[in-house]
Amino acid sequence: MVARSPASIQFPLANMKESDITIRVHLDENHVPENIEWKAEADNQGVGKAMLLSFWDAQELNTLRIDLWTKEMTTDEMKAFFHQNILTLADTFERATNEEKMAAQMRDFAAYFAEHMLPELKKKS
Fold first, then answer.
1. Phi–psi pair at 11, nearest 5 degrees
2. SS3 65
3. Which residue from 56, 82, 101, 122 lies 20 to 30 Å from 3 (Cα-Cα)?
4. Where are the domains of the chain?
5. How far apart are CA 97 and CA 105, in angstroms?
């Protein structure tokens, strides 16, 4: 089974000097996310059940992150979400560092993860 990373969202930023991306999280009375919406310029928008957002803090040499998921997100959806994120991280890591061997190791782990966490994928192949 060859795992492929999900399609990346591409924003037409080439001719723009800046772009705003808005994330709106609707919370219930207990401050648990019920809905996550995003919108970017050029009419890109969507609704999601989960998001992982990371920023590199160059002064602290640390990652700042926001991990959110709605109460409707199922465990199986979360497993698939993480699997796709592992594959995306491998692709991004390879593009950013040219470390092909380590990216391949990350993809191998993604395949291992899928084998143990997403058994329904085996039925489809």
1. -105, 135
2. strand
3. 56
4. 20-72, 74-125
5. 14
Q: What is the pTM of this model?
A: 0.78
* C-alpha closest to that of 48 among 34, 32, 60: 34
**Rounded CA gap, 16 and 65, in Å?**
26
pLDDT per residue over 89-121, tens digit each?
999 999 999 999 999 999 999 999 999 999 776
Amino acid at 85: N
Distance of CA 87 to the CA centre of its chain: 9
Rounded CA separation 7/84 (Å)? 10
Amino acid occupying residue 37: E
How far is residue 113's CA from residue 125's CA, in Å, rounded to a whole number? 16
Look up residue 43 and give its amino acid.
D
Residue type, 113: F
The span from the CA of 82 to the CA of 79, in Å, is 5
